[in-house]
Task: inverse folding
């Protein structure tokens, strides 16, 4: 199934959408939701089917990813500065990785997309119209999956993976609680609610992320198979 590509807004003028024959598939979800594992499984599955796959994700731009990481270490970024940093990171990958890969007919698996970035901005009190316009240059994906995992389970899985909780992923900059654990739970519920609000507008596929890795993988594969036929 070849779907015509489009931008959410003004897009990138130099991009010829008629030449983008590949597929853009997005997997969203919080840290600890199992995104990376599912991306790896999907990559292997698609490559075994004979498809060429390119992986991208937020904070992977060679242009600003290191600078963004350094800025976050100080825990002083404002919501606007952080959004502009992430928008630059995303724009660089869109123009130099995603669009060229789609033009070559490849499948692009994106480990989080603009939706996480918008949700983070909105829960910090940012203007919805402003952030939607900011990401108007983004391509509309062919499929978007949101791995929905209970925040209480996310805490366990984050500790298993990193033995700690991330300051920003816990929303500590919002002053929700003096407790890192409590702040994480509150913040992740806020992010989850924003994703549920965005579901209809952006046509998310909600995936129950509280199941086994194999069960989640089978669900994703079944839905993607429809896109590929």
Result:
């Amino acid at each position: 199934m070849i779907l015509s590509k489009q931008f959410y807004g003004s897009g990138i003028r130099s991009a010829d959408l008629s030449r983008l024959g590949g597929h853009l598939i997005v997997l969203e979800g919080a840290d600890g939701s199992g995104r990376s594992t599912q991306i790896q499984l999907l990559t292997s599955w698609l490559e075994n089917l004979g498809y060429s796959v390119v992986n991208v994700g937020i904070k992977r731009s060679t242009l600003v990813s290191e600078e963004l990481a350094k800025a976050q270490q100080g825990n002083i970024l404002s919501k606007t500065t952080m959004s502009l940093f992430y928008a630059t990171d995303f724009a660089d990958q869109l123009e130099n990785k995603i669009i060229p890969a789609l033009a070559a007919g490849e499948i692009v698996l994106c480990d989080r997309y603009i939706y996480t970035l918008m949700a983070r901005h909105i829960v910090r009190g940012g203007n919805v119209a402003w952030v939607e316009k900011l990401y108007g240059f983004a391509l509309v994906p062919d499929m978007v999956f949101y791995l929905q995992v209970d925040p209480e389970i996310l805490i366990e899985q984050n500790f298993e993976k990193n033995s700690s909780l991330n300051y920003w992923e816990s929303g500590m900059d919002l002053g929700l609680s003096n407790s890192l654990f409590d702040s994480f739970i509150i913040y992740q519920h806020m992010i989850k609610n924003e994703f549920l609000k965005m579901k209809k507008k952006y046509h998310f596929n909600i995936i129950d992320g509280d199941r086994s890795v194999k069960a989640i993988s089978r669900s994703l594969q079944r839905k993607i198979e429809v896109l590929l036929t």
Summary: The chain is about 50% helix and 10% strand.
